[in-house]
Amino acid sequence: MPESRVLVIESDAARADNLRAILEFVDFRASVVADAAQIAIAEHRPQDWLAVLVGDTDLDGLDGFVAWLRRDRRHPPLIVVQARHDALMQRYDLDPSACLPLDMPVRYGQLSDHLKRAGLLQMERDLGARPGSGPTGNSAVMRRVRKLIEQVAAFDTTVLVTGESGTGKEVVARAIHERSARRDHPFVAVNCGAIPSELLESELFGHEKGAFTGAITARRGRFEMADGGTLFLHEIGDMPLSMQVKILRVLQERSFERVGANRSSHCDVRIIAATHRNLEDAIVKGTFREDLYYRLNVFPIETPPLRERAEDLPLLIDDLIRSQEQAGHGSVRLAPDAVNALRRYHWPGNVRELSNLIERLAVLHPRAVVDAAGLPRRYCADLPVGDGVAPVTRRDAAPAVASASSPVAANATVHPLTDPAASLAALAVLPPEGLNLKDHIETIELSLIRQALASSGGVVAHAAKLLNTRRTTLVEKLRKYGLTRDDGDDGEAAVGAAVAF
Amino acid sequence: MTKVRTLLVDDNRPFLILARHLLASFVEIEVVGEAYDGEQAVRLAEELKPNLIIMDLAMPNMGGLQATRLIKAQDAPPVIVIASHYDDAAHREFVAQVGAEGFINKRSYENDVIVIVRRLLKEITDA
Q1: What is the largest CA-CA distance in chain B?
Q2: Could A356 and B73 be called an inter-chain contact, meaning their C-beta atoms sit closer than 8 Å?
Q3: Is A129 near chain B, with CB under 8 Å?
Q4: Model ipTM value
Q5: Dihedrals φ, ψ of A183, to 5°?
Q6: What are the tens digits of pLDDT across the range A118-133?
Q7: A408-421: per-residue pLDDT in tens?
Q8: N or C: at which end does chain B have fewer Cβ atoms within 10 angstroms?
Q9: How close does chain B come to A167, measured CA to CA in Å?
Q10: Is B75–A116 a contact, with Cβ atoms under 8 angstroms apart?
């Protein structure tokens, strides 16, 4: 995230000094101006500030500044002194989650809540979450996903979004929220798998002052932050059993307790959960509660992997580049041979991987046209050799699918290929009758994994190096293809496999 | 002995001086470069191909979360450890989500940084 700078717009010098002192006391850097017209907006981006604190100031200057700020849909929130809050929220037609009231004199709890929420928004932005109208793509699978979103949005139904990592489960959740009656209330996301389990309960439900060592003040949890809106429980399949029972209770009774509290709080929150795991398998293994599964799986939506909708790729690329430009994050263009190479890639990281790639190219090659040679090597590994006239070989007997799967470009850029890749180039030719892309790619992947394991004497870490992949990724694939004894040997022990010493 | 080629990223120059000084006492570590914001880190990671990046979160221009995402998109990306003063559930959640392998609270940097680097080295020798 960018640094934690808070912009203070306040014409009363004494009050401005006071606000600066308070902010600095809680470890934020403050930039103070008396009038928003003094801000050189040409030299700034809205994301330069974590939040904008508005006190008593001239409205003419503020009008121009807020108009500029709002050009970025993920602009930092305004924190407005209570006396002017309602008027300004109306004047600028701001969403309540983007215009927070501040009592005077300042209360530490309220200000720190507001700044925490602003911090979450900023981190979500840095995570690459994009606001927008929902999932992009014209493929039949995506049209179906959009239809399901439209069907369920208006009701308070609990939704379970499933799909591989990076397929845009959060995009679906946000789209549901934005089409629901709760759209003017907060959308709060929690990644249950990324929060250390000992901190998860207090993060979700909040805690009372003195509930545990270090709890010097009472704090609201994400359920309370989402009140009236939608709470998105991401990676619910990674939630410990002890927390699952508490979530079940919220779903049944709409109430919960802060850690250390002896009374229940009511909550009005719509729950959307998501996971990349197969929860039915998890139930069999005893790591997921069956009753919670049925409570969540009221309306299931599955997000398809990118490799199954390669025809959406050009549209997705345009969409990603456009939103980069709109947010002032620079721009880049892809040459046709680069787009062709990307269409042939199998996208294990799905749309998130594509989005990170586009953003990376915009940073490394601002306003340039990137051709296939400018892409990271893995995206070009299966480009055809020479002029691309490789013999048509049909290696698998998969049923023919006459879909718009990636055509082979005759003009693809030639790259030095390693031997296995060269021999694979013959496989990267679309037979006239078509093929099942997913099965075909899996056959190639499986064959390479077997070869790597054979030449590394079955040592997974060495095979991972040969495949230039992380050990954890390979372990996942071995599980997927049933090539492993399930000894639970994963986790961060594999970190080292990614380091090339 | 193979050294861990390390890139340090922080907008706080005095902190970088201290970190360099501290890391100099460990034979396993070779600091190969310094970057002062996320954007420089993305460029230097591509150019220097370090094995390890120790990076701050809050920096002007581009912060550590976004930079981690973009560096992880390069071929054979380095291990990334985030070092930050902000140590709470939300920050650890976001750091894990962008794919960083480790998190160090800056308040215990002096003790923790070498523990993490040694753990990585051990895992490589064991592999």
Answers
A1: 39
A2: yes
A3: no
A4: 0.86
A5: -60, -25
A6: 888 888 877 776 656 6
A7: 333 333 232 233 44
A8: N
A9: 14
A10: no
